[in-house]
Amino acid sequence: MTTTTPTPVTIVGAGLGGLTLARVLHLHGIPATVHEAEPSSSARTQGGLLDIHEHDGQLALAAAGLTDEFRAIVLEGRQAMRLLDTDGTVLLDRPDDGTGGRPEVQRGELRRILLDSLPAGTVRWGRKVSDTRALGEGRFEVAFADGDTVTTGLLVGADGAWSRVRPLLSPVEPEYVGTSFVETYLFEADTRHPAAAKAVGGGFMMAPAPGLEIFAHREGGDTLHAYVALSRPQEWFAAIDFTEGDAALARIAREFAGWAPELTALITESDTEPVLRSHHALPTGHRWDRVPGVTLLGDAAHLTAPNGEGANLAMLDGAELGQALAAHPDDVEAALTEYEQAMFTRSAQVPTFEGADLHKIDSENNTAPWLLRAFLELEQDGRG
After folding, report:
1. What local confidence, expressed as pLDDT, does residue 365 receive?
2. Is residue 1 part of a domain?
């Protein structure tokens, strides 16, 4: 009897997609090593809430055998949604009745359960990739900032927007989409920031206007996590010194003159320094010709502006790639071809607003597409 030895997999990036891939590979007995630039799992905060969808993110977690662990970290009540006018008028107020298919979890907690599910040593921390190059015959070299290198016959780029693996497959680089977020936090909100807390409610709140939006989540521990979106060129943001937190917040708040104070409090009363998040995207339908021994997943493959799908798609990419490799243990190229064709189709079909029915929102208000998408998803969920 001939036993096929699985090809070890080298994964660059310990985000949700890369860790899901590593977990599914582990379940199928396929060795994998994840190289991550961060020095440790606790080196930085991991962002805010994620709504994990039944049709992609939850399927990925099921494939990873982590459904129970996922359910244990769900924040109850956070699927509630409010839509406010800029004067504070509540236009829509839907509670979380427990029937929605997008439960909310903290990104950091989701990453933790994935990390905890892997054998010790699977993730190698402090491994910042400086370069990758093809060696021929399906072999690749990954070089790290500390001077070390590894050679692999199966390389997966799960390293996000500015992937160091992508150039092996595609010359395309992300481009700025015209909108950036300024991120703020308000702690102990019910007692220290009651007006803002009341405006946000128990889950998700959004307040749109042409070229401007404020939206916020109520996270765990009585924390409000706000994202202030502005459609401005990068040069406009570059003129603001974000190291001077109070001055930067005041400058951002001036763009929202005339808005209700309970909304602008999400800017001016921030308990943390503001963080600028510029949004970039790859072309819709980005794909590449098959190159033996290497592929991409998540934002490295199909980066978009925020639309509620990124983390979910990355996890599904990782799960499906792992399952394809397990299904074709003696034919890596068949596995990668199967995975890429499904991934290309899926990422190109993420809904857009071209031709969408926006009957409940004034078509003249120029609201950002990702925000309208969120609203329509709530309608499709029976909550909008």
Report:
1. 38
2. no
Question: Which value, in Å, is the radius of gyration of the alpha carbons in the chain?
Answer: 22
Residues 192, 216: contact at Cβ < 8 Å? no
For residue 173 the two structure tokens come to: 């680089």
Q: How far apart are the first and last CA of the chain?
A: 58
Q: 32: exposed, middle or buried (C-beta count within 10 Å: 0-12, 13-18, 19+)? A: buried
Cα angle: 351, vertex 318, 112; to 5 degrees: 105
Tokens 């399927």 belong to residue: 59
- Is residue 354 pLDDT above 60, yes or no? no
Element (H, E) at 140: strand 139-144
Residue 256 shares a structural domain with residue 183: yes
Domain enclosing residue 18, as ranges? 9-78+102-173+282-348
Beta-ladder partners of 112: none
- Domain check: are 200 and 297 in the same one? no
Question: Is the dihedral angle over the CA atoms 345, 350, 353, 355 positive or is it negative?
Answer: positive
pLDDT at 4: 57
Q: Which residues are annotated as a binding site?
A: 44, 51, 107, 299
List the binding residues for FAD. Answer: 51, 107, 299
What is the pLDDT at residue 46?
A: 64
Do 113 and 68 lie in a common domain? yes
CATH of the domain at 44: 3.50.50.60
On whether both 167 and 226 belong to a single domain, the answer is no
What are the binding residues for NADPH? 44
Domain count of the chain? 2
| Percent of the chain whose pLDDT exceeds 90 | 78
Residue 350 confidence (pLDDT): 63
